[in-house]
Amino acid sequence: MKLQELLKGIKPTSVIGGVDADITGVDIDSRQVKDGHLFVAMKGTQVDGHRFIPKAIEQGASAVLCEDLPEEKAEGVTYIQVPSTEDAVGHVATLFYGDPSKKLKLVGVTGTNGKTTIATLLYNMFRKMGYKCGLLSTVVNYIDGEAIPADHTTPDPIELNMLLGKMVEAGCEYAFMECSSHAIAQKRIGGLKFTGGIFTNLTRDHLDYHKTFENYRNAKKAFFDGLPKSAFAITNADDKNGMIMVQNTKATVKTYSIRQMADFRARIIEMHFAGMYLDIDGHEVGVQFIGKFNVSNLLAVYAAARMLGKDPEEILVILSTLHSVSGRLEPIQSPKGFTAIVDYAHTPDALQNVLAAIHEVLNGKGHVITVCGAGGNRDHGKRPLMAQEAVKQSDKVIITSDNPRFEDPQAIIDDMLAGLNAQQMQKVISIVDRKEAIKTACMMAQKGDVILVAGKGHENYQEIKGVKHHFDDHEVLREIFGINTPSQDAAAGACDK
After folding, report:
1. Residues 203 and 305 in one domain
2. What is the model's pTM?
3. What is the CA radius of gyration of the chain?
4. In which pathway does it act (predicted)?
5. Nearest Cα to 114, choosing from 381, 295, 372, 356?
6. What's the domain range around 285?
7. Pick from 132, 192, 184, 117: which is nearest to 162 by CA?
């Protein structure tokens, strides 16, 4: 594509050099630049990309998009200056890859918890309806049935448009994606055309990045503020921030609720560890999920499918066949008669929801033992809150390591324990080694009890001092129980943390 064409999507403050060069690629990583590429110098949270302009030129960049022009300018290279490369890069990437989101029905899901479940279930549902679909999620992206590994909940704008472009090439009609607060704040989804958006809920998370809850909430709200008039905005009426999210949107607003009047409603008829019977908009349906929060998730899926024009009965039939995402309230039965549940809950609210779901099924007929920790180099403020939530709804709690990253695991545990009083501490022990913590919980459990192993869910590693070591809660439990590890379904690996 000619550089001149690429610049139509942005408003440069100055252009130094010619604009008729053929651009063969767009990069924000100087190491990936090749001959004829446009290098975008981003002022990131860790490193300023402007430092790597000389390296990008050395690699063959024929044009540079930047906020600050370098003092020394290479001959034959065009420099485009803009007020914000963060604002510009999405529009440039969208143009370069042929505006792929315009050729798909793209639905974004945002909120603290539930993004992965809703996006993945929509992907699985529409594939069962016979459509080719794409999924953009934390660990695995899918182009129809092809899995593409991912490092972030939402990729950078260039990778994002490249993946969407491949979906179009593969004949995909729909795409479902998680939209994280980081991605919205950093304009990673800038330039994309959404058919619809879904809000799940909002609780404390990522304050290490956003600093305040208001900033975090506003990042989520910005997604709905940017939806076009032709789109739909589905919001959770049961969340106190649900209507705030959509108060300034131009999109058609629809609500869902399990507690009050709404456009889409559901209630629980019956619940077991194997699943639930629900009433959704006057229709009874059996589903393979448990917990009130999963009723909300399933209702959001139902609402989105309805807004995409699908038949209610077909939606409910397929909904009854869908399975939980890997590491989301996933039960593993012990031969000794107790149940272990692996769940990704890594926020106070998520932990509260999962434990509430377990108690809804137990109905006072067994004890709950919770194994949990907190991630290193993340929001310190939620650590004592995590411990408090675990103690409130558990008979015994084992505080252990999650992903300590570059922190001392014991220091993280101490932060969690600092939120507990002397009486609460009587329920708690701490074991730094996560495998030993899970083994200890299994030794404590009796027939009819439930062990919740929280925090890592689908993850098959522990990150320690910058190195990812293989570790899988499912494998540890199955090893203890002496049972084989089953293979996972196609889209079961995608989650958000």
Report:
1. yes
2. 0.80
3. 24
4. Cell wall biogenesis; peptidoglycan biosynthesis
5. 295
6. 98-321
7. 192
Show the tokens assigned to 132: 């080719």
State both tokens at 265. Answer: 């409603």
Q: What is the CATH number of the domain that holds 411?
A: 3.90.190.20
CB 212 within 8 A of CB 219: no
What percentage of the chain's residues is helix, strand, coil (to nearest 5)? Answer: 35, 25, 40
Are 412 and 401 contacting, i.e. CB atoms less than 8 angstroms apart?
yes
Nearest to 229 by CA among 194, 198, 205: 194
Residues 233-255 pLDDT 10s: 999 999 999 999 999 999 999 99
**Does 494 reside within a domain?**
no
**Interstrand relation of 339-343 and 330-333 (parallel, antiparallel or unpaired):** antiparallel
Residue 137 corresponds to which tokens in the numbers above? 């999620």
68 and 106 housed in the same domain? no
Angle among Cα 474, 395, 115 to the nearest 5 degrees reads 45
Partnered with residue 278 across adjacent β-strands are: 268, 285
pLDDT digits (tens, 9 = 90+) for 454-480: 999 989 999 999 899 999 999 999 999
The interaxial angle of helices 348-362 and 292-307, nearest 10 deg, is: 110
pLDDT per residue as tens digits for the range 263-298: 999 999 998 888 999 999 999 999 999 888 899 999
Q: Is residue 228 part of a domain?
A: yes
Q: Which residues are annotated as a binding site for meso-2,6-diaminopimelate?
A: 378, 402-405, 455, 459
Cβ count within 10 A of residue 151: 9
Annotated binding site: 30, 111-117, 153-154, 180, 186, 188, 378, 402-405, 455, 459
Q: Which residues are annotated as a binding site for ATP?
A: 111-117
Distance CA 458, CA 435 (A): 16
Count: domains in the chain: 3
Is position 342 within any domain? yes
- Examine the pLDDT at 211 and tell me if it is beyond 80: no
pLDDT (mean) for 350-354: 91
Distance (Å, rounded) from C-alpha 459 to C-alpha 140? 12
Of 363, 296, 339, 338, nearest to 118 by C-alpha is 296
Asked if 250 and 214 sit in the same domain, the reply is yes
Hey, what are 350's tokens? 């998520």
User: What's the CA angle centered on 127, arms 124 and 129, to 5 degrees?
Assistant: 115
CATH number at residue 259: 3.40.1190.10
Q: Structure tokens of 82?
A: 């803009």
Does 362 lie in the same domain as 279? no
For residue 227, the Cα-to-chain-centroid distance in whole angstroms is: 20
